[in-house]
Amino acid sequence: MQIICKICGNIFEACQYEVNRGRKFCSLKCFSLSQHKRIKKTCPSCKKIFEVPKCESERRKFCSIQCRKSYYGKQVFCASCGKDFRVLNLILKMGAGKFCSQKCYDNYRTNETETKYCSICGTQYLSRKSQPRKFCSQQCYWDDLSNRKYPTNKDLNQDRIVDILEEQGCLVWDIHHLGHGVPDILVLSKTGVFLFEIKNPDTRHKLTLAQKKFMNSWLGPVKIVTTPEQALEAVRNERSR
Fold it and tell me: For residues 107 and 202, what is the distance between their CA atoms, to the nearest angstrom?
């Protein structure tokens, strides 16, 4: 492909890749001359006249970064020292631009933290006053959750279902107090061991997130029943297999 050099006017050959990359000069010498050739422009922020290379005339609009910030930015106050400064609107949209310098940011972090001791392992750590933490790490947080005992409510129809199963010769253990999505009762019959999740008829068999997580991880079946008849049918169906 033939291109006319922007400096000397000579026609030279260039491949499609070079054209796509924006090649405009026939040689390195012409490229160097283009860098020295400068034009005058007026800064839209301070109205000062400044010079830029001709090849950068379309890209450079301001005489300095400060003028660019003043033109596009917004006046804010430093969260640490209170000094006013300008920040680009794009930076403010990203949630940054709260401090005028790195020093102010470091001072703010130092004053906003306090020393605490982890309630699980006893390790000393720093915590923000605005966002207090009780644990030194994510692992200690999960250890605390696993040690907690959450209150669980017993279904109204559970006692009736347990009585019917025991009358049929099954051994039943109440395990609803374990929480963490564990089913309500453990049933031992002549043919096997079963887990029953008992639901009230008015709940429409809705499972909590913890119950769904347990059922997905449990290798064996979990029977969801609402009436004594459904519990008996589940046990009888297992016996007939």
Answer: 58
Query: How does DSSP assign 193-234, residue by residue?
Result: EEEEEE--GGGTTPPPHHHHHHHHH-SS-EEEESSHHHHHHH
Asked, for residue 81, whether it belongs to a domain, the answer is yes
Asked whether 214 and 180 are in contact (CB, 8 A), the reply is yes
Which range marks the domain in which residue 197 is found? 158-240
Neighbours of 57 (CB within 10 A): 15
Segment 84-91 long-range contacts (CB within 8 Å, at least 24 positions apart)? none
Taking only the tens place, the pLDDT of each residue in 66-80 is 787 777 777 788 887
Q: pLDDT tens digits for 161-210? A: 889 888 888 899 988 777 778 888 998 888 778 899 888 876 656 778 88
Tell me, yes or no, whether 152 lies in a domain. no
Domain match, 189 and 231 both = yes
153, part of any domain: no
Q: Which residue did the predictor score with more confidence, 66 or 230?
A: 230
Beta carbons within 8 Å of 48's beta carbon, 6+ residues apart? 42, 63, 67
